[in-house]
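Supplementary notes for students who missed Thursday's class. We covered one full example, reproduced here. Read the sequence, then the structure, then the short commentary at the end.
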Amino acid sequence: MNPCQAMIIRIDKYFFLLIFLLFPLFSVCADTIFLKNGNEIKNVRAWEEDGLIKCFQYGSIVAYQKKDVVRIEKGLVKKSSNPPLLWKGGYGYGDKPEFFKVIRVFDGDSFIASYKKIKIGIRIIGIDAPETGKKKGKGQPFGKEAGKYLKKMIKGKTVAIKSYGTDRYNRQLAEVFVGNVNLGFEMIKAGLAEVYNRKRLPKGFDVRQYLRAEKRAKKYHRGIWSLGDKYISPKIWRKKNRVTYKTR
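Structure (token representation):
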């Protein structure tokens, strides 16, 4: 073997070694989630956590119940220059997180937000605000105040969410942040919402800070807690008035 042939073999050897080492830097998983309702969530990074199927979608972490997922297909695509990252106060992509823009607030715990022309219903997890009632119907005491308070904090603004799945109305159950402010926690602090049924909260959601805030709001008779014995839980009120959200 002459020196030229030896050099070519050595170059080929190190070339393939270099490709092998650099390949992970140029590719990441691009998974497809197949849902039972027929929808396909494409080009996402999906994983299982806390009994949920989670993925990066619309600039945030979105979660789906395992029972709603048929299968996940793994794939590879060219790696983005802006990989997903955890941002203080929310979830996003790259150096500057992308957020949902709030376009409509229904009441003290639900609203609609959009991301690149995609509209998504959001139900703030861990809280239950007094109902505002139908258009011509009478709602609960502090129902309108709760809606106005939430609207003041988020209407027209961008928010980051941490999703824990969807409810039966296909709304994202999520913690919602404006900057470092947890909106659900603020609603509890103001006495404009109660802590939602703890037994039905998803695994991984820490309700302890909400319970402490609720205890303090009760102590100082804030908002709904100023009603004393006249206060009716939104859950009981909905049953009596047969409130649903299918039109939202």
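Commentary. The radius of gyration is 24 Å. The CA atoms of residues 36 and 51 lie 17 Å apart. If anything here is unclear, bring it to office hours.
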